[in-house]
Amino acid sequence: MDDSNREPRVQVERRSLYDADGNVVPAFIDAVRHAVADHDAVQLKAEIEGLHETELGEVLEHLTTDERKRLVGLMGGDFDYTALTEVDEAIRLEIIDAMSNERIAEAVSELASDDAVYILEDLSEGDRNEILERLPFRERLRLRRALDYPDESAGRRMQTEFVAVPPFWTVGQTIDYMREDDDLPETFSEIFVVDPSFKLLGAVGLHEILRAKRPEKIDSIMHPTRHAIPAEMDQEEAAQIFEQYDLLSAAVVDENERLVGVLTIDDIVDVIQEEAEEDLLRMGGVGDEEISDTVVTVARSRVAWLFVNLFTAFLAASVIGLFDGTIEQMVVLAALMPIVASMGGNAAAQTMTVTVRAIATRDINIHNSGRILRREVLVGLLNGTAIALLIGGVTWAWSGNFDLGVVIAVAMVVNMLAASLAGLLIPLLLNRAGADPAIASAVFVTAITDVVGFLGFLGLASWWFGLI
Amino acid sequence: MDDSNREPRVQVERRSLYDADGNVVPAFIDAVRHAVADHDAVQLKAEIEGLHETELGEVLEHLTTDERKRLVGLMGGDFDYTALTEVDEAIRLEIIDAMSNERIAEAVSELASDDAVYILEDLSEGDRNEILERLPFRERLRLRRALDYPDESAGRRMQTEFVAVPPFWTVGQTIDYMREDDDLPETFSEIFVVDPSFKLLGAVGLHEILRAKRPEKIDSIMHPTRHAIPAEMDQEEAAQIFEQYDLLSAAVVDENERLVGVLTIDDIVDVIQEEAEEDLLRMGGVGDEEISDTVVTVARSRVAWLFVNLFTAFLAASVIGLFDGTIEQMVVLAALMPIVASMGGNAAAQTMTVTVRAIATRDINIHNSGRILRREVLVGLLNGTAIALLIGGVTWAWSGNFDLGVVIAVAMVVNMLAASLAGLLIPLLLNRAGADPAIASAVFVTAITDVVGFLGFLGLASWWFGLI
């Protein structure tokens, strides 16, 4: 919050990091780079002063490893360490590793507790303890408590700064307390009501406090918090509660229902987005890869998936191998067979994508899948018939063989039906078995459309033309 | 906000809509269904009373068309119309179509302006005008203004209820005004500062007002709003600004920079999520399909994609057709050739997925792709070599033909390299050409890995074994 400038449209006057399309302007990065190369701290500060933490993070991601370390060194105490929460993990660790524990402690003490936890959780236990020892008692206690909760839990993501008052206070008392206490969070939109043992009783929005008269009791304007989140809860589950009830913030409680922190929607937006992305990446056969990962990391994480697919490919090859006599006698089948298999694969990918997404958003489960099953089978039949007519006609025209057109058309309808069923049922069954449908579905589904595609087409052709 | 009940954990006592895994409990739906079938309004109200709007929406989605209409009829004025903003568009239209304009007007007048717009924007202009005529002047004006902005713009999603005060007011005046004015939004966390022409000057968080002394001028505690959003801006662009600057709410201004509304993060979360999902669906070859769409809608939207893919399949088939002589002489090639093509396809899908996502999050563009290009080529070489060694060995063992193992291994490395290049460059080029990389990439990429796979393997085999 920049109080020094009263003009609303500040960003127009200074050089902007982004162009009109939202892409980073190369000239901006070059200017930063030159200032770093020249060890010109004054110029550097002029360039990056006033950047938002996400913008500074973006600048860091565009620099080389060396330039990043030098930038942080040159900025010294003026560096906005919140930017570290905005860069990829690899870059964050790189920068932190280059800093002394003393400097990290200084940096951490300037951050909100959730940002501080974000940085501390990646460090070794030894370093983390040394840094915590350097912090004031109250802050150390708060951070230790958050760090004690499991990885990726609500307790790790929560802010431990919040305002809590007893129910018998008046609105006036509460306002006076907020005016006088210096140890409040930077921004907050509700305050919590707790009993003497810090057990959560309810919450009051700031707009409700502002609109109440000073003598009113907090008790009479508070409302019970129906969606308190246990600190041990996984962050993805917490995100689902936020989505389900359109929450902007939620109290986090320990196992005794005592208030320990507050989760806000801005911490949760990242989780929501990551979750939607995760399915995309998994269905594409990549893990939680980041664009800044090294060649070896990327190659290793991707090769496992390729090996798994190799089995499917060999399975398909051995199905074809069964029909080598047929192919030898009628070699045109070899050219046509991949069409049947690949169209089935494409149709299955459509059904599978919709199913995986519907499972993730809980729009479908094994109990209510009947209607969807009927729909997918009908879609498979309709589109299968359309594609079959076209492909049969083209094949007839191309090969001059009417019977071949019929064979490929029938095989196509069969494989499109198999594709619909596999694309729907395999993700559902995998989900029921406790596996992640986004990761494993594609292998099984492709195996089925390949096998049914090759077996159906070559088998039907062998029988129709009497080649076996 | 339910003030009538002071016990914090209300939901434990009443029957819950969700089980522990977050799935809808069938017994709950059955109970609602029975109450509807029996025309038992009392029982129905007892069942769905106190449900959150998203929960009520979920219940509606589990009912049949008839049951939905009857439920809304039985509930009468007690129905929470906000639930309509939580169901699929098809279901919303179905329910609204069954209501008289008079009842829609009553419903709309109870909703916040953004929810009202959400319902009104789907109606025909005639119905919409008739409904607006029935509303009080001030509300009608507000809604008309929001509806005048383009579809999916910030102006459509904004709330037109907000608190705005002049800069020369004191904190005390502001608090008194908020205590007395009845026409304030239900919840808000900041107030805006405007000049006499309603031009936006800045904003103050409620926490800042609460912590200031009554005689202080608003002017002295406000800060300029750097991220005001033009009402005409597309909602996706607005969502990007929210993400970029971790905003919880933002002022919406008209072309003269006059304050017209406020966008809050809960409206934006849906947009952010939709955008992340969009790429997943598009890469899977489906449009913005919803799980409640009919067979014909789904079939029609998917078949276009299948026809496009058919061309790729025929292209691959004609490449194979070039080598019919080769295959006739060495039929084992027919069984092995899909392995090379499909492994290339899988590797390309990995690179393409990462690239499409990186384009969407603006982590990569045509200017900074050099480093990524180098990485992808190296990953393709590394994994290509690993897969090639395995596949060459297996082929040698399987066929007893060492030369065949060498040929397939070399063809595999070549196709894996082609896959890396195509998976990266095609999305980037499509994006540069202004096309959506998520939609079109897969066709082109598969065409390349199929053609290179078949051509490379069969061509190399023909040459190596002297079969042409």
TrEMBL record, chains A, B:
Q: Name one GO cellular component term.
A: plasma membrane
Q: What is its main location?
A: membrane
Q: Name the source's superkingdom.
A: Bacteria
Alphabetized SMART domains for the sequence:
CBS, MgtE_N
Q: Where are the transmembrane segments?
A: 303-323, 329-356, 377-398, 404-430, 442-465
Its annotated compartments are: Cell membrane; Membrane
Could you confirm whether the keyword Cell cycle appears in this record?
Answer: no
Q: What UniProt keywords are attached to this protein's entry?
A: CBS domain, Cell membrane, Magnesium, Membrane, Metal-binding, Transmembrane, Transmembrane helix, Transport
Q: Does the keyword Transmembrane helix apply?
A: yes
Residue intervals of the CBS domain: 158-220, 222-278
Q: Name the Pfam families on file.
A: CBS, MgtE, MgtE_N
Q: Which Gene3D superfamilies match?
A: CBS-domain, MgtE N-terminal domain-like, SLC41 divalent cation transporters, integral membrane domain
This molecule's function is given as: Acts as a magnesium transporter.
Q: What family is this protein classified in?
A: Belongs to the SLC41A transporter family.
Indicate the quaternary assembly: Homodimer.
Q: Which PANTHER family match?
A: MAGNESIUM TRANSPORTER MGTE
Q: What is this protein called?
A: Magnesium transporter MgtE
Task: List the taxonomic lineage.
Answer: Bacteria, Pseudomonadati, Pseudomonadota, Alphaproteobacteria, Hyphomicrobiales
